[in-house]
Design goal:
84 residues, binds zinc ion, globular
Length: 84
């Protein structure tokens, strides 16, 4: 599966009603990362550990308020599952 493009993330956010005013400052403009060739599939990856064993690697893409920097994280698999 190819990398998510910026417009796919913003389209998905719009479809899910996730483009709402910032809960910290009320601004309504958000920035999302654009992944280039050679980048990982997700802008942020967390390695989940249970009982000292790596169980999963979970990817997220951030959306950052352009006014105050408040950042929301969206699970990359949820966005990819919504691809058409
Ligand atoms: Zn804000």
């Amino acid at each position: 599966m190819s990398k998510l493009q910026r417009t796919e993330v913003t389209d998905w956010m719009g479809e899910k009603g996730a483009i709402r005013p910032c809960e910290a400052c009320g601004a309504q403009q958000w920035m999302v990362p654009h992944l280039e060739d050679g980048d990982k599939d997700a802008a942020i990856q967390l390695h989940m550990i249970v009982n000292n064993q790596l169980t999963d690697t979970v990817g997220f893409t951030p959306a950052m308020c352009v006014n105050c920097g408040n950042t929301r994280l969206f699970h990359i698999d949820a966005i990819k599952a919504g691809r058409k």
